[in-house]
Amino acid sequence: MNKHYSYESLKTVSGDDLDFMVVVAQAFLDEIPPDLKALQQAISLENKELTYQFAHKMKPNMEMFGIKVIPEIKGIEDWTSTTKDKAIIADKLEHLVNVLHLVFVQLKKDFKL
Length: 113
Prior knowledge:
Layout (H helix, E strand, L loop, with lengths): L6 H7 L4 H27 L3 H17 L5 H10 L10 H21 L3
Helix pairs in contact: 2-3, 2-5, 3-4, 4-5
């Protein structure tokens, strides 16, 4: 199965400490799903301030895990400073949600969480 996160990136961040990798993976699984849900809700309500806050908050985790969704997150952040309808970011949000759900499954499997 093709990984949607970088095990090597996580290994580097953790100093090659498997126990710490498990802790970091668990923290990701504890934090990102509720943030993703809150992001989706903020977009649904067109609350651009909250949308920006959640998108911006998620970005460092995506970088740390090597998850290739930064363009989507930046696109969502950029939308918050426009008057455009949320429909223009629907594809970006859908891609972000789909990739993150695959990452959640892979992390649980890889680290037996």
